[in-house]
């Protein structure tokens, strides 16, 4: 929303997994890890379409004060199927569609549209 072309953030495996999902879904450009642990960083390029960011909204659902766990029947659809929900499952970080296909639930991290 600030109009930046790229962001750099401290590296973690969770952030890298979420960024990889966003890249696979087409919301961000390249995702590159630079540096060595524990001082590594993650470089994420933001995608724009006609000078408008591709990501129009993001909502963090599960927070440290209140965790949201859903089973396979409670996984939400985001903006009528146009968005993506991201879950942390026993098989790793995945989208809501992948979790439904695998028949598992988990912690609902965020929704993106």
Give a written overview of the molecule.
With 113 residues, the chain is α+β, with helices and mostly antiparallel strands. It folds into two domains: 1-54, Ribosomal Protein S8, Chain: A, domain 1, CATH 3.30.1370.30; 57-113, Dna Ligase, domain 1 (2-Layer Sandwich). Helix content is 18%, strand content 39%. The chain is built from two helices and ten strands. The strands form three sheets. Strands 6, 7, 8, 9 and 10 form a five-stranded antiparallel beta sheet that branches. The protein has a three-stranded antiparallel beta sheet with strand order 1-3-2, with helices on one face. Strands 4-5 form a two-stranded antiparallel ribbon. A hairpin with a 2-residue loop joins strand 4 and strand 5 (52-53). The longest helix is centred in the first third of the chain and has 13 residues, at 13-25. It is globular and about 35 Å long.
Task: Tag the structure with descriptive keywords.
Dna Ligase, domain 1; 113 residues; 10 strands; five-stranded antiparallel beta sheet; Ribosomal Protein S8, Chain: A, domain 1; 2 helices; alpha+beta; three-stranded antiparallel beta sheet
The general outline is globular
CATH architecture term of the largest domain = 2-Layer Sandwich
Number of H- or I-type helical stretches: 2
Q: Quote the distance from N terminus to C terminus.
A: 13 Å
Helix content: 10-25%
Low-confidence parts, pLDDT < 50 over ≥5 residues?
none
Quaternary arrangement of the chains shown?
A: single chain
Classify the beta-strand content into a percent band.
35-45%
Q: Fill in the CATH topology of the largest domain.
A: Dna Ligase, domain 1
Tell me, rounded to a whole number, the average pLDDT. Answer: 95
Structural class: alpha+beta
Under the CATH scheme, which class of the largest domain?
Answer: Alpha Beta
Number of strands: 10
Largest sheet: 5 strands, antiparallel
- SSE string, helices as H and strands as E: EHEEEEEEEEHE
Query: What is the CA-based Rg, rounded?
Result: 15 Å
Number of separate structural domains: 2
